[in-house]
Write a structure and sequence with these properties.
This protein is of the alpha/beta class and about 300 residues long. The protein folds into 2 domains: about 170 residues, FAD/NAD(P)-binding domain (3-Layer(bba) Sandwich); about 120 residues, FAD/NAD(P)-binding domain, CATH 3.50.50.60. It is about 25% helix and about 30% strand. The strands form 4 sheets. Strands 1, 2, 3, 4, 5, 6 and 17 form a 7-stranded mixed β-sheet that branches. A 5-stranded parallel β-sheet has the order 8-15-9-10-11. The protein has a 3-stranded antiparallel β-sheet with strand order 12-13-14, with no helix packed on it.
Length: about 300
Amino acid sequence: MTTHQVAIIGAGPAGLTTALQVKRFGIPALVLEGSRIGGLLHNANLVENYPGFPGGITGPALVRLFERQAQDAGVEVTPGEVLVLGYVDESFQLETCGQAYRARVVVVAAGTKPRLFPEGLIPANARERVFYEIRPLLGVVGKRIVIVGAGDAAFDYALNLAEKNEVVILNRGSRVKSLPLLRQRARENKRIAYRPETEIERVAVASGEALTVRCSGREDVFTMEADYLVGALGRVPRLDFLSSGVQEKKTELTERGVLHFVGDVKNGLFRQTAIAAGDGLLAAMKIYRYFEEMS
């Protein structure tokens, strides 16, 4: 089995930037992506704080530019979700479904995974209409979509989907965590309704396969039909593939410069494309310095 100098787990903004920069340094890298290049950008209604795009750019459009830049630079992305990352005999071992790789240095740019609705709330026959990202729904028209959440993602998803659909945002509490600009845009959009202090009690499949969503509100209990239900309940770092050995040695491996965490996987609430790209660039520069010192 060939040992790669660098393996990058994830091809979102952080992973792709790392790959582009190590390519410029002449360092060969294996880039593994279990889904699609671009990560959560596929869901973004409008990216307005990424330099170089006056007026902003949609998430999917920015992803297409990333893909083109990677192709032009000769960066290849290998399909495969990393299921296990181990560390044995001074090298990392990466396992995907049916494949295994080794690498001297690993960059974890695996992003996040969503917090799910409480167990038992979504019946089995309703799960195909429940989503935690909106990329699969971007082509639907004339539907009613219920979004649960009160952060940036909930309001950004609503603005994106409301271009062609009716959207209801349910907030379990009264506090809104979203950027004020997104809240203002949602208030001005007649296709978006916002209900604070409203919690889902039960979800069922109604006639015609639509969902029946029973809610308890501030002063009432009501039921409404929805074609789709979207959970924007927060996200957690996707680190479940780290072996116990890597978990135990994480600090040591990071300090040695052979293990790097970049982008959303480490940035908590600060999940921004520009921050992720900066993380990836910094990691690549540290990796170059590491190999220079080892030579």
